[in-house]
Amino acid sequence: MPTKKELLDRPIQHLDIKQHNVVPLVDAMAHMAYSSRDTYRAASIYDMMLRDTDCGVILCIAGSMISAGLKQIFIDMIRNNMVDAIVSTGANIVDQDFFEALGFKHYIADDQYKYGNEDAVLRELAIDRIYDTFIDEDELRICDEVTHQITNSLEPRPHSSREFIREMGAYLQREGKTPQAGGVDSVILAAYEKNVPIFVPAFSDCSAGFGFVAHQHARQGKPMVSIDSAKDFYELTQLKIANPSTGLLMLGGGTPKNFAQDIVVSAEILGVDAPMHKYAIQITVADARDGALSGSTLKEASSWGKVDLTYEQMVYSEATLALPLITGYAFHKNAHSSRKGKKWTSILDQVAVTA
């Protein structure tokens, strides 16, 4: 049996769109067919979205994207004002991004492991598998404990996930987990420094959930920290009200997709005639036949009053293939050059004060 050290020897390397000018390639794809032409149109819409400086850009992340090597793209999007808010699954933000910010890594798994034949061996070695990627379970438990410590440090009341994740960013800065102090950059840190709010509507469905369980178990009968998903929804709706023109860039589907799309309807419930999302791009490998949200089309979302049909594009592709092309195209065309950070966190902090 191989040793743990032997299996965890090739770290995932995060792709850097700054190093690859894909503009000529994507432009050439405009004259092709199938997913190539769809990808070109999606890249053009994202370019248009960024040049529309009134538009607030919301990035939705489902699936295990950061462990797969997309972390640096998300960081560059934040630091170059190419995104104004993020809605994500908890695994991407806690188990993967925060995990790496603490100094840990994800590793490449050989082909013999990605189909599950050796999972019993991996369990013996305390190695967790995400398809063809490995993560050290012992290191993940350290990440769990740090989130527990952050939970214990907070005022015992309901918090939005956005508030909690901001505290995670403050922790990284305070503890010197920054590039300036010899650490690595992270999505949470970049968002903290650029005032980009991150929402995780199902926050307990990740390693942070273990910290909440431990915290609430220890504080039975006493005031405790909890996550208020309704507060998440209210806060994101306030952003739609404050900035009516919005665009979505969605990886996968699930809760992040629906959460972000629904703020149009939520604003209407609050008596505000909010326009549908002006721009929308979804990258997915799902289709619509089983009725699942991940495969429902953007045209279907229009029937619910959520997405305008003028600038929408479905891209049927795995995200690690399509996202570097779409974001790299806009980056190297300098679509973001006139954008200033909207600093949406400051709006939400004001909402929290007045609530």
Automatic annotation (TrEMBL):
Keywords: Transferase. The keyword Cell membrane does not apply. It comes from the Bacteria. SUPFAM superfamilies: DHS-like NAD/FAD-binding domain. Its EC number is 2.5.-.-. One of its GO terms (molecular function) is deoxyhypusine synthase activity. One of its GO terms (cellular component) is cytoplasm. It is an enzyme of class 2 (transferase). InterPro entries: Deoxyhypusine_synthase (IPR002773), Deoxyhypusine_synthase-like (IPR023496), Deoxyhypusine_synthase_sf (IPR036982), DHS-like_NAD/FAD-binding_dom (IPR029035). HAMAP family: DHS_like. Belongs to the deoxyhypusine synthase family. This is Deoxyhypusine synthase-like protein. It comes from Tunturiibacter gelidiferens.
